Amino acid sequence: MRKTLFDKIWDQHVVKNLPGGRQVIYIDHHFIHEVTSPQAFAELKERNLPVFRKEQITATADHNVPTKNQHLPIEEPMSRKQVTTLTENCNEHNITLYGLGHEKQGIVHVIGPELGITQPGMTIVCGDSHTSTHGAFGNISFGIGTSQVAQVFASQCLILQKPKKMRININGKINPMVTSKDIILFLLSKLGVGGGTGFFIEYAGEAIESLGMEARMTICNMSIEMGAKGGLIAPNETTFNYLKGKPNAPSDSKWEDAVEKWKQLYSDEDALFDQEYYFNADEIPVMITYGTNPGMAFEVNEKIPSAADSKALNYMGLKPNEQLIGKKIQHVFIGSCTNARLEDLKIVANFIKGKQKAPGVQALIVPGSQNVANQIKQEGLIPIFEDAGFELREAGCSACLGMNEDKIPAGEYCVSTSNRNFEGRQGPGSRTFLASPLTAAAAAIYGEIVDVRNI
Amino acid sequence: MERFTKLTSTAIPLPLENIDTDQIIPARFLKAIDKKGFGENLFKDWRFHSDGTANDQFILNNPNYTGSILIAGRNFGCGSSREHAAWALKGYGFKVIISSFFADIFKENALNNGILPLVVIDENLHNLFKAVEENITTKFQIDLEQQLLKQVDSELAIKFEVDAYKKTCLLNGQDDVDFLASIKNEIEQFEQNRIAV
Ligand code: SF4
Known about the structure:
In chain A, 30% of the residues lie in helices and 17% in strands. Chain A is α/β, with parallel strands linked by helices. Chain A has three domains: 157 residues, Aconitase, domain 3 (2-Layer Sandwich), CATH 3.30.499.10; 109 residues, Aconitase, Domain 2 (3-Layer(aba) Sandwich), CATH 3.40.1060.10; 149 residues, Aconitase, domain 3 (2-Layer Sandwich). In chain A, helix 3 links the parallel strand 4 and strand 5. Chain B is α/β, with parallel strands linked by helices. Chain B starts with 5 loop residues before the first strand and ends with a helix.
């Protein structure tokens, strides 16, 4: 025994051991999108190879799509070309595509789970670093490059070196107003953007077990920000309840067997990790980033450290010892695969109900998928957003990476629920503060950064 | 894939840590459907001001620095998985990137495109930066077969590690698709065995 959850899943997927330590690993499901797949399809064609297992691939258009008037042809020619190329490739190879206009379209890491394609015990890849999101269901999910997309097309396998294993234990109860986004920003501030490199991280402990699936996804999503190959959480009743009845989840006759198998997915009591951390949930405060990588984060009411990276502060237009509380902002972006699911948008709606956004602030809400957009309609959240002056858009990655029209103008500040505050990430010259949906909603109402605990 | 065996070149130093792939190639340049032309947009927002004029302060715009080796600070290539970053570096003409640490996905992407991500310890990285700082024309020789990085006309010689499988791939100009296609039967057998369990 003595196996970690990660070992159990990995070992079940080893096709072959290669000299020198690499292993051929079988991939259960492969998600693709329009930006990182065209060159891989081209590669197949060049080599005259077929797609090996088309049933194990799901495609969607998300990175490059407009969030307005999705029923019209995409205006920008390059983006349109990329999306139509995806459609052509999927048609040619008979791959399931939830393209623009489809009721199941959305950000790839939002639709996988909500359709029940993402399940415990699987290996899942996608040409996108935030594939780590799916690990919230207790599986091995990670981002790959386009050459590897071609490898999976050709063989449903990858040639990999087994990563080391880390466990982060968070015990105790989570403080009020602290969300799972704050938890992961806290971990990033402690471990840094290189802290997880070479590792696959298991998140465990009472505080993690108590989280809902959507909150778990937010944490696993940002594992990559620590440089980790991925992150995962052992499945429990919360996981099973979430999956039950989802379109692609095991159907009635197979459900019991599947759950029985999933219940074996946990780290053995004496399992050995290469590295282990322990935190107490009550030391985790409300967090925000101040710099240009997600590790440059601190408690929202702190002062910027005097030793903070000067290149980052220059870019952000901030000074050492300055406080972010009271800092005027011009944009709020509530979206991305980190925080654009129903639970996130409910948190926002609850907070802004009956309030008005501050004048001069653009507050954008971009649901993670068409399905999420439908859910918020059913839940009656749309009038709340509209009355508060928020702008509700159609599903896609949007201002998370600014590949479409949704960009933050140079020099302006945005409180964003996304996952990266790199220079230019939200558009050339954009300045990003990463925070939870709650902190972002509050910033939109007050027009400045506030500490939600003091409201 | 092109073979990689030996290289002798001057180097361009970029002593910044955590250079992410959004800097290497900003997202707005990811719209192509082939691998060509990314070199022009390498480090775009560092190389050019927002009005399109060249940023003279940035090292790639300094004509005194040339070469196909990039020496960069720790944790190079972190962030997005975009292989476009590797295509941009390759398109610009880099064949070797030296750092004390590479982000995982970037490292694979580089190797899959015939770029050697060469890891040295922090102290050696410091020495390499110093060597170039003292003399821009310093040349380095990289011998993959011997796994040896040497400073030409100097004592400095550093043995480096490289994954045995990837080394063979680079030396022979083979890649993973070739290999995986060759073991198709074993993969099918694996699938059969799983269904049986
Ligand atoms: S929402 Fe942002 S992080 Fe997520 S897949 Fe899209 S671009 Fe990547």
